[in-house]
Amino acid sequence: MEQIDIVIIGAGTAGLTAAIYACRSGLSCVVLEENMYGGQIVNTGEIENYPGMPGVTGFDFANALHRQAEALGAKIQFSPVSAISKSDPWFYVETPSATWIAKAVIAANGAVHRKLGCEGEERLSGKGVSYCATCDGAFFKGKSVAVVGGGNTAAEDALYLSGICREVHLIHRRDQFRAHQATVRRLLAAPNVTPHYQATVQQITGDKRVEGILLSSPNGEQRLEVQGVFVAIGLSPNNQLFAPLCRLDEGGYFAAGEDCRTTCDGLFAAGDTRAKPLRQLVTAAADGAVAASMAAVYVGERIKS
Q1: 135 assigned to active site
Q2: Residue 86 phi/psi, 5° resolution?
Q3: In a 3-state reduction of DSSP, which class is residue 276?
Q4: Which of 151, 157, 164, 296 has the most crowded Cβ, counting Cβ within 10 A?
Q5: Cross-strand partners of 123
Q6: Catalytic one among 29, 118, 136, 165?
Q7: CB contact at 8 A, 140 and 227
Q8: pTM score, two decimals?
Q9: How far is CA 107 from the centre of its chain?
Q10: How many CB atoms lie within 10 A of CB 286?
Q11: 180 near 156, Cβ under 8 Å?
């Protein structure tokens, strides 16, 4: 068993920012990551909306965070977390190779965008296929795009894109939208938005970039020429590991406010894994900073070692 001040679960923007702030607070920390550091942003070709860094690639952004955290003394280990428990005042975080005993834990494990699962989606991800209209919409100014989904996120994405793009196709597998009716009314009133009901995307086509989609509906197959596909069918947090320790909301997200405190003392949630209205790089970084700062206060005031 290895003892440390803070265990951070997840090496995305929130987790690595938390590591930077934890180390600058004089605390020892380890970041446990199952896959690649950087999280989902690694697959983004160009970031336009992170303050002060226009045009940086997702890969370069993630690398810079990783180097900064390591240079400050953060340990970064690539290993899944298999179990977590608490026996006051300690947390026990288990991986296949070690058990970490920590004074505080920051969950920054993110959430995964639900995928369509159709042909061409993975191949063209970051090349016209996007899961964030706010992040990537500006790249499609004056172009034709498709939004897939029928909930509030899809409707709001389509409205947002209608102010940027020449044409927006909104594709929903049901015969009516699940979004708030006020939003739906605004959406259907937009002159450049075309709804497609009871339709599913069978294929996303294109060689090096998205060139079109193949739809299937009760009326048969239809091909649409689009340069972008925005998938808005929800997120899936993977927080069941923490369910015995703290309260999760009905969507499975941590019920943690802007102070990133969960209902379990010493456990903090940062980034996409917590319930929040906006999931962006800048809010993930902010969460990481807040969570680490709150954890430092908790370690200093509540834990005496």
Answers
A1: yes
A2: -135, 135
A3: coil
A4: 157
A5: none
A6: 136
A7: yes
A8: 0.74
A9: 13
A10: 18
A11: no
Task: Encode pLDDT of 223-275 as tens digits.
Answer: 999 999 999 998 889 899 999 999 999 889 999 999 999 999 999 999 999 99
Contact predicate 77/10, CB 8 Å: no
Residue 144 exposure: Cα atoms within 13 Å on the Cβ side: 9
Q: Which of 23, 29, 135, 264 is catalytic?
A: 135
User: Could you write out the three-class secondary structure of 208-267?
Assistant: CCCCEEEEEECCEEEEECCCEEEECCCEEECCHHHCCCCCECCCCCECCCCCCECCCCCE
Give the tens place of pLDDT for each residue, 193-227. 999 999 999 999 999 999 999 999 998 999 999 99
Exactly one of 132, 165, 246, 260 is catalytic; name it.
132
Query: Do 223 and 215 form a contact (C-beta atoms < 8 A)?
Result: yes
Cα 14 from Cα 205, distance rounded (Å): 34
Apex 240 CA angle, 261 and 98, nearest 5: 85
Query: What is the rounded CA–CA span in Å between residue 284 and residue 7?
Result: 17
Element housing 93 (H / E): strand 90-94
- The percent helix, strand, coil of the chain (3-state, each to 5) is 30, 30, 40
**In the annotation, is 260 catalytic?**
no
pLDDT, tens digit, 9 for 90 and up, residues 10-52: 999 999 999 999 999 999 999 999 988 988 787 666 787 889 9
CA distance 231 to 247: 29
* Alpha carbon distances (Å) from 83 to 2, 86, 239, 240: 15, 10, 11, 10
For the chain, the average pLDDT equals 92
Q: What residues does 28 pair with on adjacent strands?
A: none
One-letter amino acid at 80 equals P
Has 136 been annotated as catalytic? Answer: yes
Q: Which among 278, 261, 269, 268 is positioned nearest to 49, based on CA atoms?
A: 278
**Number of helices (H), then strands (E), in the chain:** 6, 17
Neighbours of 278 (CB within 10 A): 8
